[in-house]
Amino acid sequence: MGGYGDVQLLRDDGLRLDGRKFDEMRPITIEAGILPAADGSAMVTHGLNVAVAAVYGPMEAHPRKIQRQDRAVIDVRYNMAPFSTSDRIRPGFNRRSREISKVIAEALESVVLVERYPRSKIRVEIEILTAEAGTRCAGLTAAAVALADAGIPMRDLIVGVASGKVEDTVVLDLDKAEDNYGQADLPVGILPNTGEVAFLQMDGDLSPDEFNLAMEYNFKAATEIHDIMVDALKRRYEGGEN
Amino acid sequence: MGWRFATNGEKEMSNGQNGAELRLVTPGMAIGPSSGMRVGSGALAQNDTIIATRLGWVKQLNNTVSVDPINSAYMPRSGDLIVATVAEVRNNLWFMNVNGPFQGLLPMSLAPWKVEFGAARQHMGIGDVVLARVQEVDECHNVVLTMKGVGLRRLNQGSVHSVPITNIDRLRGEGNATIQRLREVCDCRIIVGENGRVWVDGDAEGMAWARQALDLVQTSGHKNTFEAELSALENNAPKNGDA
User: Fold this and answer.
1) Residues from chain A contacting residue B72 (CB–CB below 8 Å)
2) Cis peptide before A63 (omega within 30 of 0)
3) Residue B8 touches chain A, beta carbons under 8 Å
4) Alpha carbons A82 and A153: distance in angstroms, whole number
């Protein structure tokens, strides 16, 4: 995120390298209930990112020392598949995946009604099959849909979305080149119905005005993604009458 | 805070407020105003609005708005008949997997046998399946099971299948009519546990057919085409002469 001055990220016609406008997202599709063995699951395709999330539980928390007497613990495991990038990733946990697992778990704990299941554990597995910048946001969105699919009670569906700055211009939903050579990245987890922010990270520098503009882009995109999430969940159970 | 434009309840407020029609809602979706209404399960009141906390169907009964979830974990209640498996064995008790967030505890005093201290393993080991009843659930969600009662026993034969908790009523049918129909068609003994576990015992053909029927409950139990699909499956049952 140091800003490489010789890399051109915006075209002369005012569009981005892939032809998007500043406030335009990459195409996104969501499918719920793709893993029959899981209690809830979802797959999010966001640009070239493919994130699969599976939810198991709530279940008895083991080992017992991790149990909380007043609430459930959310155990998130974010992992990038070795083949998800052009350079092979060494399998297993690393510093980055630990950090992302932690921030996603904390974001989810703020929306899941964890006090309903004391002493238990909700296991969330997020696997990134293909990565192209924005995997933590795609993973968070997939996890939210999978939790809803599993019937876990939540205050809202949390949406992961990111904005950033390239060539002194605030843009929505950075792609790989913009993420690598841009000046700032601002991934957030948004609760669209309440307007709350459940998680926020910032890499690089943004002025207050740029930050507000980036958040405006993020909220606008979150509303769009939320509609796609709702549609995916409804599509899974269409034809139902209960 | 120029970007904080969305407030709770701005979306989806226009339809389904009186609960006249079934409406599928997702977590966070506004169901309607909370004034004069009581909030039932699967929903909560937030800023004068009732919002859904689960994916499911909105139900309104006697001024109470609730959401019937499409998927749900089993929450044990006193008196439930369940099919449980042994998860851990101690000297004087068994911890049972009840297919829920909390393990059930079966003390040797509530087992159907006279068990000496330290001899629990001689009666049941890890993985054994039992038919038990929930004796007690306290406010800390401690679950105590009992095997003292008519028909409660260790299930030594047959197979155990899972169906979603929310489809159990559909599997049983009105006055147990559907499950009785399945029993007659496959000529098997079938016990439906409240915890979403179903025990089936009979001949191989009948059990194979029962498995197909339970898979149908799993995949289509929530759909309005379930009855038609089940009838089509019945026509292919071994006892109907096709096999």
Assistant:
1) 151
2) yes
3) yes
4) 33
Per-residue model confidence (pLDDT) at position B96: 95
Residue type at A32?
Answer: A
Contact A218 B223 (CB under 8 A): no
Complex prediction ipTM: 0.89
A 47-76 residues with CB below 8 A of B? 57-60, 69, 72
- Test B26 with A230 for CB contact under 8 angstroms: yes
Please report the pLDDT score of residue B7 as a whole number.
36
Q: Does B51 touch chain A (CB under 8 A)?
A: yes
Min Cα separation B213/chain A (Å): 17
> Any CB–CB contact under 8 A between B206 and chain A?
no
Residue pLDDT, tens place only, B152-186: 999 999 999 999 898 898 899 888 999 999 999 99
The answer to whether B2 faces chain A, any CB pair under 8 Å, is yes
Tens of pLDDT, residue by residue over B116-139, are: 888 888 999 999 999 999 999 988
Choose the closest CB to A120 out of B11, B24, B102: B102
Q: Measured between alpha carbons, how far is B131 from B145 in angstroms, rounded to an integer? A: 10
- Helices (H), ranges, A193-207: none
| A110 in B contact zone (CB under 8 Å) | no
Phi, then psi, of A71 in degrees rounded to 5:
-165, 170
Helix B204-220 to helix B177-186 angle (10° resolution) is 150
Closest-CA distance, A82 to chain B, in angstroms, reads: 33
